[in-house]
Structures are given as C-alpha cells and as structure tokens.
Amino acid sequence: MGSLYGYWGPPNEELLGRMDAVLRHRGGSRLLTDESPAGAVGVRPLDGPDADPDTWAGLYSQGDQAVALVGFLTNRLSFRRPLLPHLLDLYREEGPFFVKALRGAFILVVRDGLTMHLFRDGAGSRTVYYGRMDERFLFAVEPKGVLAAPGFPRRIRPGAVAQYLTFSFVPGAETMLEGLFELPPGHLITFRDGIRHPRPERYFVFETAPKEQDASEGEWVDRFRRVLEQAVAERLPDNGTAGVFLSGGIDSSVIAAEVARQRPDPVKTYAVYFGPEYAHELDFARAVAERTGTEHQEILIQPRDFLPRLRKIIWHLDDPIGDPITVPNFELSGRSAREVICAFNGEGGDPLFGGPKNIPMMLHHWYGGFERGPQFRERMYLASYRRCYDDLEQMLTPEWRQRYDQHEVLEGVLTPFFQSSVPPDFLDKLQVINILLKGAHLILPKVDRMYGAWGLRSMAPLFDERLVEMSFLMPNRLKLDRGVEKVILKKAYQDDLPPEVIARPKSGMRVPVHFWFQKEMRRYARKILAPKRIREIGIFNEKRVKQLLDYNIEEGPGRYGLRLWMLITFEIWRRIVIEQESP
User: Rounded to 5 degrees, what are φ and ψ at 289?
Assistant: First the structure.
C-alpha cells in the first residue's frame, strides 16, 4: 500500500496534483514530492502505528539525485539505516541493477539528473503503469493515475478484449488501453532524453538455475518451512493486529498456522460464504481456526449488499479483471480493515507449487489429447481457463475480430514460454507462465487493489522471491505427484493442520454467479447489457449476449455466470474509463 506516481519530462504545476487526487485513497495524510528539471515524483506513505518511513514508503533527495519507495523490503535489515539514503548509495556504486539485491513488495523510483529509473519488485506484488503523452512519460501505481493527465488517449486495444475474454485479465505488459503499459514483475525501465520507446529490462530471473538433486525430501521440507517462517516474520507488523483471509484450502491454512504460531496476540481470521444454499468451505476454515487458536469470523456476502458498490469496486480494479472473486476480496477487506492493519492470504500456492489446474496440461503433455497441430500446447493452455477462448467467434462482432490477429494476441503470448529451452521441465514452464502472467497481472493486482481500496496492507508470503526461486530448484515431485498437488506445503505443515485439510483436494472459492444471474442479479445484468447499448459499442455479438442472459446456449458448456460477470465488469469499466462516467 501507499501511493507513488509522477512523470518524466517538462515541468507541469497541475499534473502532479491531478495524479495525487485520484490516488489519495491508497496513502496517508503526508504528501512527499520531488520536483526537478527531470520531472516530478509524488509519494503518500501510509499512516498508522507502524508506518515507519524506512519500512513502508518515503522519498529522499540529495543534489541532482533522489529515491522514492512505496511498499516494503523484506530484507531491509541487511541495509544500513536510514534506508533510503543507503539505497541511493547502492545505486551510485552499482547502477540501476543494484535492485537485484532488494526483496519485498515495492515500487521504486531513482532520479539521476535528467534520467529516471522505475522498478517493480521481483514477484510483482505491487503494480506500476506507465505511458507516453507528448513529451512526458507518466507513471503511477494504478492506471487511473496515468489517466489523470488531461488528454491522455482512452482507446480500447482491440486484441486486449479477446485476451480478457480468454483469460479474464489482460496478460503481459500491454493493457486494455492503447499506449498504457504495466511494468512486468522483476523489471526496470529507464526514461531519458533520446529514447521515445524505452524497453523494460528484466533483473529478477528465477527459472534458469539447475535442479538441486542431492537434498532429501526431509531436507527440502525443513528448508521450505524455514523460508516460509522467515517470509511471514518479515511481513508481520511491529504494532497493530494481523488478520488472515482463510478459505479452508491448504494455502491460506498454512499461512494462518504460521502467522498464529509467530504472533503472541490473537490473530483474526476471516472466512466468506454466500448463504446456506450455496457450497462453502466453512467447516474446513473453522477446523483450521480452532486448531490454530485464531479469533474467527464468517462473513456473509450477498448481491444486495455489494451491488450498490459494484461500480466502485470496478473503479478500484482499474484495468478490468473479470474474476468474481474480486467481490469477496473487496468485502472481506472492508470488514477486516476496521480491526487489522494488514491481512495475509494464501495467494501463490497454485502458481508456485503445482496447483491442480496444471494437471490437465500435464496429462495432455504426457498422453496427448486432441490433434497435436501447430501451437497445440498454447491452444490447450488457453482452453484450460474455461472462459471464452473457444467462443470468441460468437462473442465478438465480425468487425471487431477483424481489428486484431488472434494468433498474435493469444497463442503468440504463450509461444515464447513453451519454446524456451529454460526451464527444461514442462511443469516448470507452466509455472513460469502462471507466475509472470497470471500472478503478476491477475492475482497480485487483484488483491493489491481490493485491499488498497480500504487502506489495508496485503501480505502474500507465498509469493516471496526466495520461495519463487526455491520452487524451481526443488524436484517437481514435491510440487505435483501422481495427482496430488502442492506436496511440499502439505508435508511441511501436516502436524500443524487438521488432517482433513491436508487430505482434501482443492476446490477453490465458488462464487455463485451462475445462480445470482438467474435470481438477484438478473435485472441488473439485463440493464447493463441492454441490446441497444451492446449495439452501440459494437464489440460484443448482441445475439450471443442475449443467449447468455437467457441461459440458452445449445452448443458447448454455457458457463453463463462467469461469462456474464466478465461482460458486466468490462461494460462498467468501459463506461467509467472510456466514457468517463462517475464510479
């Protein structure tokens, strides 16, 4: 959390203020600015009992150089205090790639004379966006900070709509808008005179080290546990209460057990459900809470409660994310922010340690499936999302589909990963994709925005860079073994959790949108996706939208609720961002 934004280029007295106004919800009461001939940077550190400027955010300038930080470093104690002057010293000694020594969840800016360097943390736990307008490069932790510049173009990138319908998010550096980019995780980008199209440079590379074959299973289990213990310890607040969002799955249960073990005061855990008539995991979450001794709450989420806030939720998401889990994230954050200053979650277990969604890809890799034509792995991976990949011809108008090359914007995003010689193992290739695309552009931005909407700090220790690196060093049988996923987590914490939580397969949080759009959200959906509006925007096929609303698709699986959720999210986003309606 915290807010960071700015621009490189000619001074503009009003621009920094406009950016601050739309991002003020992310930071505290103090505004720190650095204005120079190179441009300007603004930082709003967090308020709160442990808002140490050396830990969470700050700005330091000396002569024609400055450094600005938002977020936190987990290895900050290995550097001299005060931290920011020391980071500037490291930059002077080593240049921009001094950032290789940093670990944590952060966005960093270094100004050096007329040059600016922008950095995103290795795992992508924090986000930063940038774009060029006239003679300036604008950057901010959320897209709305860049869009605050008057006249910044708001044009939908045609291929991004196909990507969104396929993934439920926009993968890679390009976003839904032309000319607006997301800095990839573990990358830096440099703005300076003479470079109109700067290219991000990768500094955090985790997939190239060879497997460590000599260690025994027990040694790996001990090593994993020690690193996770440290990752949690470095994220616990010195003052204030910590919370955990507890689903009852293995990932969040492991985090709850570790936080509760380290914290002397009671830890608060929160579980969500959608009503007694819908499937839930409350029994598993209760069992974990009882075993770990947390103060446990169960939060009921229903459309009548969140629908009045849905436009605001999507405004906070900014770059559209069509995953309905955003609503539980938002609602839980709002409830828990009254009681805790940070909330831990189990995000990272699936992409790092062989989640169950890898199993169909592995089976296809081993035994085949449909015809192995060109880009068969890419096509299989895209279909595994079970969104609209196989239905784009029906979902989008012919005129819209003619505006992009499907192989370039869909299969072409994945081909470099599958064709790369490193890592050699197929499961590891899948994990690289899941970390650099799904993790960095869906999972982590989603929690960052939804927590940040309430001033709550998001903590995802399973995405710690050391665990990212460890995942590619350990044998794959400790991740996925004969259909059992996340073996290392289960073995490391089998004595700390109820046996039924260790043994159960992953089911995921099932947001009942399929039923909501037949009941409580039926009228809302028909209003947002009215035929006249669908015809006016010219993106979606009016006939297909009506079939979804009527739950009447004859061919293939309907997946009505999820598809309607993606369409509604996109349309509300479009009205707020493109038409500039109020949230």
Answer: -60, -40
